[in-house]
């Protein structure tokens, strides 16, 4: 629609509520954990990712769990947003769309599929609900 040299466009899509954990490492939201999302990878790719993480984050607590379309890895090492972004960009086979969405949002979010993660080794995760577009 055009009105007086201004162009308006409208987009409509269905949304659903998603519940999960955010990468915020502290209440100040100044640091982040390294949250990673991987989709549909073969075993040799998973081994390469494990080798990369062991070499780059040897002393960090990490958790890996399966999802419907692949798996998530959480590395509990507090970093600045910029350092977390740079780390994510170096991880082989990471879902680039996931990294881009987190960059735009200012944090990374991993949806939970009826599986509350709770606490890991004394680490309290930040939960939230967001709206996701239905594909």
Structure description:
This protein is of the alpha+beta class and 135 residues long. The chain has one domain. It is built from three helices and ten strands, in the order ββββαββααββββ. The protein has helices at residues 43-56, 81-90, 96-105, and strands at residues 2-3, 6-7, 15-22, 31-39, 61-66, 70-80, 109-111, 119-120, 123-124, 126-133. The strands form four sheets. It has a three-stranded antiparallel beta sheet with strand order 7-3-10, with no helix packed on it. It has a three-stranded antiparallel beta sheet with strand order 4-6-5. A two-stranded antiparallel ribbon has the order 1-2. A hairpin with a 2-residue loop joins strand 8 (119-120) and strand 9. The model has no long low-confidence stretch (mean pLDDT 84).
List key phrases describing it.
three-stranded antiparallel sheet; 135 residues; 25% helix; globular; single chain
């Amino acid at each position: 629609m055009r009105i007086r040299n201004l162009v308006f466009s409208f987009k409509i899509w269905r949304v659903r509520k998603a519940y999960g954990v955010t990468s915020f490492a502290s209440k100040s939201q100044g640091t982040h954990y390294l949250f990673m999302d991987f989709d549909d990878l073969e075993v040799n790719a998973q081994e390469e990712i494990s080798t990369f993480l062991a070499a780059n984050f040897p002393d960090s607590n990490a958790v890996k769990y399966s999802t419907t379309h692949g798996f998530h890895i959480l590395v509990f090492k507090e970093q600045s947003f910029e350092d977390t972004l740079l780390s994510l960009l170096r991880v082989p086979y990471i879902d680039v769309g996931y990294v881009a969405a987190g960059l735009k949002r200012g944090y990374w979010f991993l949806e939970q599929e009826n599986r509350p993660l709770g606490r890991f080794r004394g680490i309290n995760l930040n939960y939230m609900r967001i709206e996701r577009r239905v594909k």
